[in-house]
Write a structure and sequence with these properties.
By secondary structure, the protein is an alpha+beta fold. It has three domains: about 230 residues, FAD/NAD(P)-binding domain; about 120 residues, 2-Layer Sandwich (Alpha-Beta Plaits), CATH 3.30.70; about 90 residues, 3-Layer(aba) Sandwich (Glutaredoxin). β19 and β20 form a beta hairpin. α1 runs parallel beside α4. The longest helix has 22 residues. It is globular and about 70 Å long. The chain starts with a strand and ends with a helix.
């Protein structure tokens, strides 16, 4: 029997699988398509996701392939009208505590997935492509999933990461509640246009039919095309895409030398009514569908996987009670709802991009797995980075373990136990003085001003819950 079956090899499914693999969990990934998703769709990586990628060991590859979001250039009648920086409010200077804050990092989704898959394979995992799901049943001990060739796979837990049209969600009978963010259809495509410079994100707002934009994708020769329509269903055929660009820009159809991928959609915001049914968990687009505005969808999806995988690892290998898994929906569903609201408001022009889109302020203060406070932080807050006494905190936290960090106070002599790393550093403003238990996903789980100070939940008791 498998420990975990992951259905879907998008960013969420691959993140879950590789995080489980580094915990020694036998996770099998099945994907209906014959290969990785070929398009650029989710191209923005927020600072919090870069922190996750640091922990997972893929950040160097991501940063080598990526680039900052370019400044916009507005065109009219074939003439440049001037630059417009839609990310001006996100130009937040990085600090030791927030080393990746700033402009969104841009990387086409297909390249992000290639990097995640390479890391998964380095850890001994892989993806079974061309394996769709047709059936699902559960009993007290396991989940049995039927594939389209009749094969049955049995696993202790299953992770549904199979996208907005999730078969797993449908088989579980879980509904999605949401709304159409914009009734206008949108076409998205990856195209090559050697005649167009790659210095800017090019916007062509002049057509009565709607805005067209061409964004250079770092590390490639491609542009991502996004075009709005007033009605109907956009034609995604290559010649139709070329014709569209010629109609709405100064470019000729023959300037588009290649149409590498194209699709159409109507911006929608929807949230699954539940993120869990028995032994099956929904993550990523299977759990929430976003407007692309604000770049929240892929990032929220990766962080779903990051939250769930350490908890599965603790239950399957770390001796944690199965009740720990109840905290996945408790923690992630409210944040997904918050990010859906944010992306919808940005899409409708009701809120500007800014610090909220960076996802550095998200946390779990009100969740049952958060206990105590000390210094500048409450349990449930993101654990800041920094270099103290020659030690980088993110490197200290990196891995599948918990970390008990004493900042400006003494570390208890009897704190060491299996699966718990301990460290003491001098006072640090980002934390304030105190004891901080950092969860494997980089959030404070438990905090107290000192070992002797009263706390709502003593550390030994807290650790029995996870």
């Amino acid at each position: 029997m498998l420990d975990v079956l992951v259905v879907g090899a998008g960013p969420a499914g691959l993140t879950a699988a590789l995080d489980l693999a580094r915990r020694g969990i036998s996770a099998r990934v099945v994907e209906q398509a014959d290969g990785l998703f070929p398009g650029s769709r989710g191209k923005g990586l927020q600072p919090r996701t870069l922190e996750v990628f640091h922990d997972l060991g893929v950040l160097d590859e991501v940063l080598a392939a990526a680039g900052p979001a370019p400044v916009g250039m507005v065109w009219a009648d074939g003439v440049r009208q001037g630059e417009h920086d839609m990310f001006a409010d996100e130009t937040i200077e990085p600090t030791p505590a927030e080393p990746y804050a700033g402009r969104p990092c841009m990387l086409p989704q297909w390249r992000t997935q290639e990097i995640l898959l390479a890391r998964l394979r380095a850890l001994g995992g892989d993806v079974d492509f061309g394996r769709g799901v047709t059936g699902l049943r559960q009993d007290a001990d396991a989940v049995t999933v039927t594939l389209d060739d009749g094969t049955e796979l049995r696993a202790r837990y299953a992770v549904a990461a199979d996208g907005g049209r999730s078969t797993m969600r449908r088989l579980l009978g879980i509904s999605m509640t949401g709304e159409e963010v914009d009734p206008s259809p949108t076409l998205v495509a990856d195209v090559r246009i050697p005649a167009l410079d790659r210095d800017n994100w090019h916007f062509f707002p002049g057509s009565p039919a709607g805005m067209l934009a061409l964004c250079p994708l770092p590390g490639t020769a491609d542009f991502q095309l996004m075009a709005q329509f007033q009605e109907g269903t956009p034609d995604t055929a290559p010649d139709a895409v070329r014709k569209l660009i010629a109609e709405r820009t100064q470019l000729a159809a023959e300037d588009v030398t290649e149409v590498r991928w194209s699709s159409d959609f109507r911006p929608r915001a929807a949230l699954a009514d539940r993120f869990r049914a028995g032994r099956v968990f929904l993550i990523g687009d299977a759990a929430h569908v976003h407007s692309p505005a604000g770049g929240q969808g892929l990032n929220t999806s990766v962080q779903d996987a990051y939250n769930l995988s350490w908890k599965l690892g603790r239950v399957l290998r770390g001796g944690a009670p199965a009740a720990l898994l109840d905290t996945y929906e408790e923690e992630r569903r409210p944040l997904a709802a918050e990010m859906l609201g944010l992306s919808t408001r940005i899409h409708r022009g009701e809120q500007a991009r800014g610090r909220a889109t960076q996802q550095l302020g998200l946390g779990y203060r009100e969740a049952s797995l958060s206990a105590g406070a000390a210094g500048a932080l409450h349990a449930g807050d993101r654990a800041p980075d920094g270099v103290l006494d020659g030690v980088r905190l993110f490197d200290l936290f990196r891995g599948p373990h918990f970390t008990l960090l004493a900042v400006g106070v003494e570390l208890p002599a009897d704190a060491g136990r299996e699966g718990l790393r301990t460290a003491r550093v001098g006072s640090y403003e980002a934390y304030g003085d105190g004891l901080f238990l950092v969860r494997p996903d980089g959030y404070i789980g438990w905090a107290a001003p000192s070992w002797a100070a009263p706390a709502p939940d003593g550390l030994p008791g807290y650790l029995t819950r996870c």
